[in-house]
Each structure stands twice: as C-alpha cells, then as structure tokens.
Amino acid sequence: MQQNTFKLFCVFCVIFCLSCNEKEVATHEWKALKVTATAYNSFEYQTNTNPHITAFGDSLKPGYKYIAVSRDLLALGLEHNTPVAIEGLDGLYLVKDKMNRRWRNRIDIYMGTDVKAAKEWGRKKVTINYQVEIEKDSISSQPLKE
User: What angle do CA 62, 109, 116 make, to 5 degrees?
Assistant: First the structure.
C-alpha cells in the first residue's frame, strides 16, 4: 500500500513540476533585410596575403557556411558569429568576415576554393534573415515594445 502511495505521490510531483513552468521570454528575434550578395574564395588574389584568416581573426575552412558583411551592416546587428539565412540557399551561415569599407549593403558568401561555384553565383539581390538580441527594458528586464 505504501509503495503505491509513494508512486502516486511521485507521479503527482512530476505533473505539478511540469505544469509550473514559467513563460519563457524570447531573448532573440529575426530581422529581414534586402542586400546584394556576391561570393568569394580563399585565394590571395580575391582577399589578401593571408586568405584563410578573416578580419575578425577567424580561420576560414572550406565546406563551412560563412559570410562576410559590409561594415554598414555591423551597425544593424550583423555582428561576428550572427546566424544568417540567405534566400535561395539552405542552412544558416555565420558572419565570420568584414568586407572592404567601400562596400555598402552587401554580403559576400564564402565558397571555399570552389571558384566555379562563386562565379556561377555571381551577384544577386537577396533577402537575408538574421538573428539579433532583443533589447531589454533596463527596469523590468522585459523586451522593449516598439
């Protein structure tokens, strides 16, 4: 009898604990932006004398999904390691590099050493979606309402 009561008590505790979850407050949101997208490779003639090191100091590795962003996009939240979804491409890309200051509203998709794929991509206008941290109200710790 005591064993059944104990089991019933345990089941009740589990159900109670699961039903007491507090509402999760989102910490990130996705923003959309129309940009010009080009592609680049890990070759000196396309980058600089050390084509495998990014402006952020990361090492580029062929096969990974990385992008470079024009410096004006940094102020919009496309910072180092920001996840980005690119229209027409599968998966998420990470911001790992910064482009030359002359470029505006542009991303450069890293295509490793596949020059043919980069040339086939060419230059396109695409919509990207990127994740940014939601600014919190300093008093209530709740997301700011726009």
Answer: 65
Give yes or no for residue 18 having a pLDDT over 80: no
**Cβ contacts of 136-142, under 8 Å, gap ≥ 24:** 142/25
With cut-offs at 50, 70 and 90, classify the pLDDT of residue 119.
Answer: very high
Which tokens in the block code for residue 45? Answer: 């003639």
Pairing of β 124-133 and β 106-110: unpaired
Predicted TM-score of the model (pTM)? 0.72
What Å distances lie between residue 15 and 20, 68, 81, CA to CA? 9, 48, 39
125, two tokens:
């206008």
Distance CA 7, CA 88 (A): 53
Q: Which tokens sit at 3? A: 């064993």
14: phi then psi, degrees, rounded to nearest 5: -65, -45
What distance in Å separates the CA atoms of residue 136 and residue 43, rounded to the nearest whole number? 42
Pairing relationship of beta strands 92-98 and 66-69 according to DSSP bridges: parallel
Classify strands 28-40 and 106-110 as parallel, antiparallel or unpaired: parallel
pLDDT band at 28 (very low <50, low <70, confident <90, very high): confident
